[in-house]
Structures are given as C-alpha cells and as structure tokens.
Amino acid sequence: MVDIGLMLLWAAITGGTPLVILVIPLARSRISDRVTHLMLGLSAGILLGISLFDILPESLDLVRGNPQGSRLVAIGTAAGFLGLLLVERTLLTRGGSQAHFEEGREIRPFGTLAMSALAVHGFVDGFVIPLGFEAGAAVGLVITLAIALHQIPDSFAGASVSIASLRSRRIVLGFVLATAIDTPIGIGVGSLFVTASAAWLPIGLAFCAGTFLFVSAADLIPELQHRARSLLVTASIFGGFVIVAALTLLLPA
Ligand SMILES: [Zn+2]
C-alpha cells in the first residue's frame, strides 16, 4: 500500500529543494566551478551507492524463488542504463547540444547531463521513492534520504549549468521550475506504478538502478575526471558512496 501522506511529504521536500537552492545561484549569478564539481562528485557517489547497496540487492531479494528472477533484474537494469543512453542521444541530436568554444576548445556545460537530461533524471529520482518504500520501510528511507540529499547538488548543478549556457533568466527560471516539479511528478507516477502491479516492482527498481548507474558512471564521473582532475573531487565521489553505505548499514534491515 502506498502511504499517500508520506508520499506527499516527500513530494514537497524533493520539489522544494530546487526552489530554495535557486535563490543562491541566481543571487550570485554563478557559483564557482569548484563547488559545483565537488557537489556533483558527491552526487555521483550517492547514485552509485544506492544502486549497488540498496536498490539492486532489494530487487534481487524480491525475485528470490523465481527461477528467472535474476535475469529479470538484469534486463530491468540494462533497460534503465540503455534507455537513458537513448534519451540523451535523442536530446543531444535534437537540441544540437549546448556546446560553445573558448580558446578554440569545445566547452560543453556539463554536456550530456545538461538541461533536459537532468530533468528526465529528476523524474526517476521521484519514481524510485514509492518503489523503495513498497520494497521495505528501511530501504525506502535510505533511498529517499539519499535522493533528497543528492537533490541539492542536482539543483545547484542544474541552475548554474543553465545560467552558464542560457542567456535569458526567464528560460533559466523555467528550467529550474521544471526540475523542481519533475521529482514530485515521478513520485506520483511511481505511486500509481506500485499500486497497479506488485509483480513489476523488482523490475521497476532495477530500471531505476540502471539509470542511476548511467548518470553516475557515464555522465558525471567522466565529465569530472576530464574537467576537474583534483584529488578532492575524486574523494567527493568516494564520500557520496560512503555516506550511502553508512546509511544502509546504520538503519535496521
Ligand atoms: Zn538526481
């Protein structure tokens, strides 16, 4: 059963975070690259952590007893990973990408992750929350706390990326509002999903893990390794991972 009150609470929290954050980058026009990189590193580690520590083990637990179970989880994970690859590829082709040149070098403001891809990812951020709680109260809480925590870097990055690459404040504001609303929408759709069919829960969870692995390993980490070759940024990736591991181990199974 979906706890509607709880879902509304998390919808308010995850939808509100980007709006609060909005004040800071807009006020300062652009936050420093260094801070953005550190926070995105934390985000990459958190997404990796909840996929490997929470979501995938949970979906494997759910299919225990089904002889095809582990294969279904593998298919769900691959569908999430490859699906997001296709989404980003389509968006990039259609959007012409936001690349511009500086000193003859191509600069892409967080390239593939920028804009619309970030909005699609934000939807999955919300979608996974009711699925997590349906799998179990403890795992649901870890997933939700981790998602809420990583929404801060998400919003910072989204706002500063869009400010860096878009000239009009109106478009930036529209984009930030879109990234604020997509997570609550994801929570709503996820609630309908778990209400409609319990059988699809492990595959839905695996799908989310697949998209998180993609964002972490294919979007964030390569971009950070390429642009911010500092030990501190690498440490922030480990830091995010350790935070999730600690949350998972501290909360009762
Ligand atoms: Zn996110």
Uncertain residue segments: 95-112
What's the helical proportion of residues? over 70%
Shape: globular
What structural class is derived from the secondary structure elements?
mainly alpha
Strand order of the largest sheet: 1-2
Largest sheet: 2 strands, antiparallel
C-alpha Rg (nearest Å): 18 Å
Integer tally of domains: 1
In DSSP terms (H or I, runs of 4 or more residues), the helix count works out at: 8
CA(first)-CA(last) distance: 20 Å
Strand content: under 5%
Q: Which oligomeric state applies?
A: single chain
Ligands bound to this protein structure: zinc ion
Task: Return the string of H and E elements.
Answer: HHHEEHHHHH
Mean pLDDT: 82
- Say how many strands there are: 2
Written description of the protein model:
This protein is mainly alpha-helical. It has one domain. 81% of the residues lie in helices and 2% in strands. The chain has eight helices and two strands. A two-stranded antiparallel ribbon has the order 1-2. β1 and β2 form a beta hairpin. The protein is globular, with a radius of gyration of 18 Å. The protein starts with a helix and ends with a helix. About 7% of the residues have low confidence. The chain binds zinc ion (ZN). The site of zinc ion has 5 residues, from α4 and α5.
